Amino acid sequence: MTHDEIEAIAALDALGAATPEEARAMSAHVASCDSCRRARDEYAEAATMLVTSLDPVPPPATLRERIRNAAVAAAGPAAFRRRDGGVPAGGTPALRFLVIRSELHVDCTQNHQRAR
Ligand SMILES: [Zn+2]
Question: HEC string of the chain?
C-alpha cells in the first residue's frame, strides 16, 4: 500500500470505520513509517478532540434495547451469556462496550447535525 492509502485508512480508523484488514495493514505499515505513524496519531487526536468538544446528547430511551436486540440477533444469545450460563443484567463487557460505543456515535452524529 502507498503512504496515501495508509493515511486514508488512518482517517477511517480514527473514526472506527476501518475494516480489521485495513487496521492490520496500517499497523504493520506505521511500525516502520514515521510520517504515516504521525498522520495516524494526528487523526486519532483530532477524532478525540471532536468527541470531547461536543456536548453530550442523551440517546433515545429505546436505543440501548434496540442495539442489544440487534447484537443478540447477529451473534446469538449464547454470545452474551456468562461462562456459568447466566445472562448478566447489563450484558457482557463486550456487549456493554458495543452499546456505549453506539451511543457515543449517536451523540456525535446528533451533535454534528445540530452544528450544521
Ligand atoms: Zn507510510
Answer: CCHHHHHHHHHHHHCCCCCHHHHHHHHHHHCCCHHHHHHHHHHHHHHHHHHHHCCCCCCCCCHHHHHHHHHHHHHCHHHHCCCCCCCCCCCCHHHHHHHHHHHHHHHHHHHHHHHC
